[in-house]
Amino acid sequence: MNMIEPAQFITETLRGTLRNNVAMSRHTSWRAGGHAERVYQPADLADLIVFLRALPADERIVAVGLGSNLLVRDGGLRGTVLLLHAALTEMRIETDESIYVQAGVSGAKLARFAAKHNLKGAEFFAGIPGTLGGMLAMNAGCYGSETWNVVVNAQTIMRSGKLLEREPDDYEIGYRHVVLRKKGKYLEHDNTPISNFLPVHQEEFFVGARLRLLTGDGEMARREIKSLLSKRIASQPLNLPNAGSVFRNPPSDYAARLIEQCGLKGLQIGGARVSEKHGNFIVNVGKATAEDIENLINKVQASVQQKTGVRLHLEVRIIGEYANIHE
């Protein structure tokens, strides 16, 4: 990979941190995968805007939160990874009593913030091991609740650094599925046209949202959060690196049940293993490569389809290049 020195990007003063050749195993919860050509961690939203405006027009970008739903192949990523989890962390109560939350806020912090302000309806976020940006992008959910059920509107940023405000109707929203389908409203009050069906993770991505919650009992909400976290600990292999549920649940069934039915718990390739505790989790039991994990994903997918006729679809994202591909 060709390295670009930080000075080549800067046309205005940047306050974040730009690094070259960064191991993405440090920034994904599977603790596996290749290197990113560049990584930028902005200081805040204003700094992110400056950085995006300074990028070359053909620079590839990928926005990453906690990396808890992501596998980066061993050949790594060309272009720039934006690390948002320690940058876009603002939360506040708006004048209309909605909550503005930036994309880098974790689910647990969001749930506790809502409970602190005697609001209910955000407790389920504590059970999702990621940040709001990723939750918006995939309509993450658990225990019967989903992210977009409480979204008033979303704040996104274009590849050019332009901010937009989007309504839920701008998206086709379903189970672990969010697709942009029509033009939204520009926050900067101009009429610059944009194309439909923008790939949110590449040309436009989430930087925040306004959430509508109900007035409730903060202490009761805190008890519910504690209960949900206890359920996670009891049912999921949190002691080993993992990326949460690997597959989406098929209609009227559970991926974990199908995987267990096929006798795949404990199946291992290299350092990657199907968890004995939860069949829909693949854990890194020691020095797993991204190739190990992806091969195991493919093996499970093929076995379940062969034995049950059900095609399991991925919930995790797999990006990057294979290790044997170099330019």
In short:
The protein has 6 helices and 21 strands. The protein is of the alpha+beta class.
3D architecture notes:
It is built from six helices and 21 strands. It has 327 residues and is of the alpha+beta class. It has a six-stranded antiparallel β-sheet with strand order 6-7-16-11-12-15, covered by helices on one side. Helix 2 (107-116) runs antiparallel to helix 4. The chain is globular and about 55 Å long. The N and C termini lie close together (8 Å). Mean pLDDT is 89; it is low at 1-11 and 185-201.
Low-confidence stretches: 1-11, 185-201
**β-sheet strand percentage:** 25-35%
Largest sheet data? 6 strands, antiparallel
Strand order in the largest sheet: 6-7-16-11-12-15
Number of strands: 21
Could you estimate the helical fraction of the residues in percent? 10-25%
In angstroms, what separates the terminal alpha carbons? Answer: 8 Å
What coarse outline follows from CA principal-axis ratios?
Answer: globular
Q: What structural class results from the helix and strand content?
A: alpha+beta
Order of helices and strands: EEHEEEEEHEHEEEEEEEEEHHEEEHE
Radius of gyration: 20 Å
Q: On the 0-100 scale, what is the average pLDDT?
A: 89
Number of helices: 6
Features:
6-stranded antiparallel beta sheet, 4-stranded mixed beta sheet, disordered N terminus, 327 residues, alpha+beta
Task: Summarize the helices and strands and which ones pair or pack.
Elements: E1 17-23, E2 35-41, H1 45-54, E3 61-64, E4 70-72, E5 77-83, E6 91-93, E7 99-102, H2 107-116, E8 119-120, H3 132-138, E9 141-142, E10 145-146, E11 151-158, E12 163-166, E13 171-174, E14 177-180, E15 185-186, E16 204-211, E17 214-215, H4 218-235, H5 255-261, E18 268-269, E19 272-274, E20 282-284, H6 290-308, E21 317-319
Helix pairs in contact: 2-4
